Amino acid sequence: MTRTRPALSWRRIAEGRLFFPLAILAIILLFDLAFDPAFFRLEIIDGHLYGSPVDIVRNGSTVMLLAIGMTLVIATGGVDLSVGAVMAISASVAAILINPDFLELSRDAAYTFTPLPLVIVLTLVVATICGLWNGILVAYWNIQPMVATLILMIAGRGIAQLLTSGTRIQIFYEPYAYLGNGWIVVPVSLFIVGAVFVVAWLATRRTALGMFIESVGINARSSFYSGINEKRVKLVAYMFCGLCAGMAGLVASSNIRTSDANNIGLNLELDAILAVVIGGTALGAGGRFSLLASIVGALVIQAITTSMYAVGVPANALLAIKGLVVVAVILLLSAQFREVVGRLGTRRSKTA
Amino acid sequence: MVQAVAETQALLSARGIDKAFPGVQALEGVDFDLEAGEIHALVGENGAGKSTLIKVLTGVERPDAGVLTYAGQVVEVRSPQHAQSLGISTVYQEVNLCPNLSVAENILIGRQRRRWGRIDWPALNRRAEEILRRLDVDIDVTQPLGSYSVAIQQMAAIARALEISSARILILDEPTSSLDAHETEQLFGVMRKLRRAGLAIVFITHFLEQVYAVSDRITVLRNGRLVGTFGTASLSRLDLIAKMLGRELTEFADMSKIKLAGRETTVGETRLVAKGLGRVGSIEPFDLELHAGEVVGLAGLLGSGRTEIAGLLFGVDKPDSGTLTVGGKPVHHHSPLASIERGVALCPEDRKAEGIVDDLTVRENIVLAVQAGRGWTRSLTLAQQYEIADRYIELLKIATPSADQPVRNLSGGNQQKVILARWLATNPSVLIMDEPTRGIDVGAKAEVQRLVLALAGEGKSCVFISSELDEVLRTSQRIVVLRDRVKVREFAGEVDEHRLMQAIAGTEHDQD
Amino acid sequence: MLASIGPRLARNRRFAPLAATVSLFAVAYLFGAVMYDGMRDPQVFLNLFRASPFLLISAVGMTLVILSGGIDLSVGGVVALTTVASAALLRAGGIDPWLIMLLMLVMGMVLGGAMGFLITYLRVQPFIATLAGLWVARGLCFWISDDAIPIHNRLYTVLGQTRILIPGLSDPVTKVGAFISIPVIAELTILMVAIFIAHYTRFGRTVYAVGGNEQSARLMGLPVNRTKMLVYTINGLCSALAGIALSIDVSSGHGLYATGMEMTVIGAVVIGGTLLTGGVGYVIGTLFGVLIIGVIQTLIQFNGQLSSWWTPIVVGALTLAFIGIQSGLAARKSRPASSRRTGQGHAATGETALQEGPA
Q1: Interface pTM (ipTM) of the complex?
Q2: Which of B371, B395, B427 lies at the terminal end of a domain, its last residue?
Q3: Both B278 and B174 in a single domain?
Q4: 8 Å CB contact of C132 and A330
Q5: Distance (Å) from the C-alpha of residue A339 to the closest C-alpha of chain C?
Q6: Residue of C nearest to B55 (CA)
Q7: Spatial strand order in the sheet of B321-326
Q8: Would you tell me the crossing angle of helices A291-311 and A52-59 to the nearest 10 degrees?
Q9: Is A351 at the interface with chain B, CB within 8 A?
């Protein structure tokens, strides 16, 4: 009776979860195609792949990275508003490591005070410590996640500013720029996203961590009774989110070859949260999550932006459309909405 | 209390109330009468149906069958708001007020008197003071409600109930759980005052002395059925307990001794030793020994400390005193995870809050504790998980279309089995079960009890906690009796039924 | 006499956060007055009010929202939209500026109401609903115009430039002396109205109740849904008003105005002693929150050596400190987990009377 083939059922679940964001993405891309038949044209120039789809993926790299970490945090029933600020901190740290005397910048493209691998490692360590801070506030001090991460969100930018004494540090070291600007047929950032995704997937689905995270998000108390250390699970989730934000900060600052404490990652936390929500993970409640679906969610958000440009909509309207799409998606996902629409069809619902 | 007139028309009357939830019949053919000017106690162990009856009376649930009569007219209570407008008010254990607002506001919000379009605060405060003084409460009503003790908050809730809906019936659901002796007396004083004024009060409580202290009549529910309604003065404490637990007390003369179910095989090695283990405010220091192949039953009324003992043995709570030894090794680290590693398992009391993880599948729920015990790195393969899940689904006859059903979709009884499966899968040497038969159908109850005996037969050491004394008697070789957070007696081999009831009731020195 | 101080302090314990905020303001101002000669000019104090109408009006509306337990991230967007829309309408010509202002207020209420509807009846999280509102509002700004639109309108100029001299601090003959502007009068009026609403109307008290415990408020029969809708609508109105004040101040409208304003506004509310979780706080506290931000800005200006980006850092740090203290206190007060299990399985179902299922 219960002998179901494991592989098949897993795929069934994944299908269910992925269906919605993929459908939305498909709709957006089809819409693009209708407007611009050449939308999907890919060209290889100088050994690099170009085209609108590539743009979508490349520009969406930072949000995809953030979304991976954010998925785990939201799955535990929390949220991390500080990822944008952590991006800024990471960018500042990297810049300083490369050019400690940033007030007297060395413009030598081959000069770096710290070797690149060490820059990356140290930056990621700092970013993870930020995540650790958030995790301690939420899991051990029982502070509401929105409030706890708001603290770092506000203070983080200040810290990033302080680190760089308020200046925007230009980074001349060429290999660093490779992270955000390089190409190996496809943009390097895509590989980075892929690598982080694989790490996250292995960590959550090839170990029991994924099940623990979901369990803690659904019912922390029952998880505790079952022997799960819910505090530690939450801590790990926030640390990983910090790590992803650090990676995103590196990619973003590499892209513009600058560490800009004010603007890097600005408002990106909101995009990340949205990507995760579109991907079907429940904000506030937590529980079941799908990393792949969150990545698709990030692509959806980026696709909206890129499509608008490609189709020729003035950048002005872009933000507004984004807002409306968000509302539409949230509504569709909201069980409440479906219920209300259903009820309107039958009788007038009495509300207090 | 003096019955003023012989024929007092019942203020509220319920006849033949049925209410079923998926998988369990919560109420069956229950009758209930409430008269004006009385304090009517409603008692019964958990799962007896008290809560459901109140929900039916207050419009939270609609009965499947039965008739409600209010002040002579047949009524259908459509909603809580409707109940309130009829004059039926309820004050719950967790006071449903706003702790950030002042006491006066909590009592009168929604009905504030206004002067020239603005709220008249002095008048509001004065009125609140007046209302409270009628309840013999004299406090500064301008302070936030949250700054006062639960006792005062309750008074405010009662005041609001009386004021806002000019209540004729006041239902108090476990009002004394958070009160000390003095505050309880104050509450009783208020209740008596309200009774004199003609109010009908339903008093739900598990503290039996309080039932005797203040109520006029007692209604006893058991397993969703009415056991009976009795005048307080004419029901002895022992009788009351017997009725609550379903034991008909036989005549003194042919008092029978019950032989406790026992395997003829000798009891095995000592698995767990608790010496002087206690926790302040939760359970007084107790001694307990558990051996292989035996079932120890914990008997006692609600609030006697059974769940607390389970919590201490399993590591959910840390003890303040005493020692715990498992498998010969002293325990220093108290946590569920450590207990699992030691081979101790707890099937907890509250299925919803402490047991199931409702969005996870049956399979995931079953393997959860095993996986937790292995740590997050050594994960079970999917094939292993299915194997374990299937094994227990079959063993416990869990009714589910597949192992991939979200546990949320199962009936209560089957959910309970899933939780049981979870703990059995950890292959514990000590298994503690806290109310494993609560809220499940009769057939499943029998299965669980059979399972407990089978487990003991396999050499496990079991602790069986249940409010159903029948079940405890049927499955245990030893019975530990708890009363008011203290372990009072231990029975082994044979138990004198009367002695047992007396131990539970605390009337060892009474004659009747 | 002295003996009664203790009890009196205890009785007014709930004003402690407010007292802390006011003292903080006083200390900061005194510090400045001591350090810098220029700060002793009464005009400096009045300038705190002159510089802040749009912040204060917006913060007042936000206070009500936060008191109800919600949050509104759209305020910056609505403010900007108001500036752009009114500038565009003024440029188009032929419409009475008073009418334009009225239209803006209506627009603000509609936007607020829409978000309120999403939050209240469709149960969308306030965070997400108002965030979407922010994007839609800012988007609309740029749809109207990419560049800033200057405002050349007599009414606006009059409203912005008129100096109202303070009697006693100025010379009526030479018309020189300490002065405030008309928007200051407006903001103070709105402040008074908000205080009245919060403490003397049923609506205001329901806002507090909902913020304290929404479920209890419902069980107590209060009109929770209506109140929540209204609170967001009112905040939309305040945002629009703030936008009008801003457009008067800078004589133009642009979609980039008020970027990041949400954080400053929320900061002002939090520093003013209102709990982010809702139910506790005083509108007057927000006034002091805004004043403190103003003092910080003034101090930095007078110092001359610190660049102005220190302002948001200090504000952020203060906000963070206040939030941290609030949360720390709240975390300590929350009941330890094991006390919930008191052997009375009832307690679990006692959670809400409206739970399905048997006891």
Answers
A1: 0.82
A2: B427
A3: no
A4: yes
A5: 9
A6: C353
A7: B283-291, B270-279, B321-326, B329-330
A8: 130
A9: no
